[in-house]
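Entry type: protein chain
Record version: 2
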Amino acid sequence: MTERHIIRGGRTDDREVFEYALLRVVPRVERGECINAGVLVYCRAKAYVGVLTHLDEARLRALDPDADVAGVRAALHAVEGVCAGGEGAGQAARDDAGRRFRWLIAPRSTVVQPGPVHTGLTTDPAAEPERLLDLLVR
C-alpha cells in the first residue's frame, strides 16, 4: 500500500473506524460541475469530529467566473464553526461530536454540498483531516 490509500497500515486491533465526507462546491447546479473544498472526519470511538477546508479560487472561477467566492468561504467557515462546537456552533454547541457530524453531512445548500459518507480505519483520527485534504482536495 502507498500513502495514497484511504486506509492506512497498522495492526487492526489498534485502529478505530472513522467516517468522512468531502465538502463540494457546486457553483452552477444546473451544470453539475463541482470541486472538492474540504473534508469532514468523525470517529465515534474517540468522540472526534474535525474539518479542514481549502478553497482553490482559480479552480472555482474556472467553473464559474462569476462565482460568489466570499459566500462560499463564509459557508465553509460556518461548517468549521459548527464542527468546532462552542459558542460559534449556534444550536449545535451542546451537541456531541456525532450529532454535529450528522448535522453537517445533511444536505442544505445548493452551492456547498456534503458528499457521500465513506469509512476507513485509523490510529489517529485527528491526523485524518490533513491527510485526506492532501489526498482528495488539494
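Comment: The longest strand covers residues 16-25.
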